[in-house]
TrEMBL record:
<dbReference type="GO" id="GO:0004497">
    <property type="term" value="F:monooxygenase activity"/>
</dbReference>
<dbReference type="InterPro" id="IPR050816">
    <property type="entry name" value="Flavin-dep_Halogenase_NPB"/>
</dbReference>
<dbReference type="InterPro" id="IPR006905">
    <property type="entry name" value="Flavin_halogenase"/>
</dbReference>
<dbReference type="InterPro" id="IPR036188">
    <property type="entry name" value="FAD/NAD-bd_sf"/>
</dbReference>
<dbReference type="Pfam" id="PF04820">
    <property type="entry name" value="Trp_halogenase"/>
</dbReference>
<comment type="similarity">
    <text>Belongs to the flavin-dependent halogenase family. Bacterial tryptophan halogenase subfamily.</text>
</comment>
<protein>
    <submittedName>
        <fullName>Tryptophan 7-halogenase</fullName>
    </submittedName>
</protein>
């Protein structure tokens, strides 16, 4: 029987809990009353906050209009140079938000796309379905995403590793209680308990399916080739001109102005604005304009990934798994029929054959190996003259926190409101350059602490990283943390000072998660709440998790009942809708 989205899934958190409690024995039903999420609970920190610091979905001002017809310096013709996810998403966003632009996408079918699993973060859902208007039902059927509740790090000193859930800002069960009872932080949110149980918050309640996916932020796991092929269909459908060509040369007019592009085989293209989406090649920003490059190699030592496919067990794990390896780490991303893996490592610390042998020891079914080399760092500027870079053309850190599509989406959403109508107007170049550089630098320091304080293995790579990795940009935060952890439970003024002094792309809760999980030495803050109160919440959460579905069961339910997806993406109580309306991502200031 198909459940009505109005009665079954466009309900509040409390209404959903009540419907589930009605099916439980009285003792278990009573426990669920302790889960008053996502309400703020004094003394345990924030309540329901974004895991991403200081960012919001940017909508155009209501008075944004096309350029004047008689303006000879108007920005009307935009060339998006390069395809893949960066090129397609940039072009689609420009058409969605500035439909008067003539957008042309130039890519070469001779340059292959890296077809590996893509782990994402929650903001991408709102970006896809609200910002650029991709139908979520069609996306579910054709791209076949799986769900990601967070990252399970096989990392640090604790046997179970580190649960890095997306609801870390809620502290819904309680981190101090988890540390007191388990000596690790893993039982501190409801989502982390779902992760440990390999379950997702979807329930069979009598003849209805009740989904709490709209109440707890999650992300997509995607197969990259399937995503790219899907996005490519919208290019011509949405009025974007598509040219299959290779760039042979770039003609400059002055030191930072592109005049035209010369194509292999003949022909020339010129635009008012060029968006460089050529990936690591950085054809315009890097090669043509010779924009200086700032390396992150003294903080992030990895430079190579060996990717492969492995057989999947019956369970579709609701998280990305990150496993410590001898010279780096290995991701595992579940898609519907197989798992995609990648050994991210330092080529200076392990040779290719030894790296593949290590993969096969961990995953004997590994096959179809590919090697991808990369550098970590960013260019000095993302916007020079009439060239703006997106994605890897500007910067890359590494895959550890699934940051690539997140950073791309935020760059696109930050840029579009700042684009000038005319080159005769003052521009926001320096504002955008500073904003973007700070975001990437914040990501650098956040990732560096994942390496610097990981005690999981004692190899030459890890000894060198622990001894030498540069974390200077986040050191002031570490000093404050040592005097009282977790940071998100410190007083408001201290939190404000820490954010201002050592900004991190992810909120303080994310830093707390990694430092607590790695056993970084610190004095824990105290609480007046009795441990029994924490235990009641934990028991209630355990009872809820026990009633939930596996991901495979839940995905089947969503395919059968389209109203579940409708309520998730557009429901009035959904976190996705909150993102789309700029509510959920707005960072409340203490």
């Amino acid at each position: 029987m198909t459940a009505s989205p109005e009665t079954a899934n466009d309900m509040t958190w409390s209404e959903k809990l009540a419907s589930i409690a009605a099916t439980l024995p009285a003792a278990q039903a009573e426990k669920l009353g302790s889960l008053d999420m996502p309400a703020e609970r004094p003394g345990r920190g924030g309540g329901w906050r974004s895991p991403i610091a200081d960012h919001e979905l940017a909508h155009l001002p209501a008075d944004r209009t096309p350029p004047r017809e008689d303006d000879p310096k108007a920005v009307r013709r935009v060339g998006v140079i390069g395809g893949g996810t960066a090129g397609y998403l940039t072009a689609l966003a420009l058409r969605a938000k500035m439909p008067w632009l003539e957008v042309t996408l130039v890519e070469s079918s001779k340059i292959p796309v890296i077809g590996v699993g893509e782990a994402t973060t929650p903001p991408l859902m709102a970006f896809l379905h609200h910002y650029i208007g991709i139908d979520p039902h069609d996306f579910l059927e054709r791209v076949q995403p799986t769900w990601k509740l967070g990252i399970l790090f096989d990392w640090g000193p604790f046997k179970d590793g580190i649960m890095g859930p997306f609801d870390w800002g809620s502290n819904s069960i309680g981190v101090l209680g988890s540390m007191a009872t388990r000596n690790d932080p893993n039982a501190y949110t409801l989502q982390s308990l779902f992760m440990m149980a390999n379950k997702v918050p979807v329930f069979q309640v009598d003849d209805k399916i009740v989904s709490m996916m709209s109440d707890i932020p999650f992300a997509y796991h995607l197969e990259n080739m399937r995503l790219v092929n899907y996005l490519s269909q919208f290019v011509t459908e949405r009025g974007i001109k598509h040219i299959d060509a290779e760039i042979e040369d770039v003609t400059l007019s002055g030191e930072d102005w592109v005049e035209s592009l010369r194509l292999k085989g003949g022909g020339e293209l010129n635009f008012d604005l060029y968006i460089d989406c050529t990936g690591f090649r950085s054809v315009l920003l890097g090669k043509a304009l010779q924009t200086p490059y700032i390396s992150f190699a003294d903080s992030l030592y990895t430079d190579t990934a060996i990717t492969a496919y492995v057989d999947q067990s019956e369970a579709i794990e609701p998280y990305t798994r990150a496993t410590t390896m001898d010279a780096g780490w290995c991701w595992k991303i579940p898609v519907p029929d197989e798992d995609h893996i990648g050994y991210v490592h330092s080529a200076a610390h392990i040779d290719p054959d030894s790296a593949m042998d290590e993969i096969k020891r961990l995953y004997p079914s590994a096959r179809e190996f590919k090697t991808v080399r990369f550098r970590t760092g960013r260019h000095e500027k993302i916007w020079r003259g009439n060239v703006i870079a997106m994605g890897n053309s500007y910067a890359f850190v590494e895959p550890l926190e699934s940051s690539s599509l997140l950073m791309l989406a935020f760059s696109i959403m930050s840029l579009i409101p700042l684009l000038p109508n005319s080159w005769a107007e003052p521009t926001a170049r320096e504002v955008f350059n500073k904003l973007t550089a700070e975001r990437w630098d914040g990501m650098r320091w956040f990732l560096a602490i994942h390496y610097k304080y990981n005690q999981r293995r004692d190899t030459e790579f890890w000894r060198q990283v622990r001894d030498n990795a540069d974390v200077s940009g986040i050191q002031p935060l570490l000093d404050v943390y040592a005097g009282g952890a977790p940071l998100h439970l410190r007083d408001p003024l201290t939190r404000r000072f820490v954010r201002a002094t050592a900004p991190t792309f992810y909120e303080l809760d994310g830093v707390d998660c990694m430092l607590l999980g790695q056993g970084y030495p610190a004095k824990l803050v105290t609480t007046n709440e009795p441990l029994e109160a924490w235990q009641r919440r934990k028991d209630a959460a355990d009872a809820l998790v026990a009633r939930s579905m596996t991901q495979r069961q839940a995905l089947e339910a969503f395919h059968k009942h389209p109203e579940l997806t409708e309520s998730l993406v557009y429901g009035r109580h959904s976190w996705v809708t909150g993102y789309g309306e700029q509510r959920w991502l707005q960072q409340s200031r203490a």
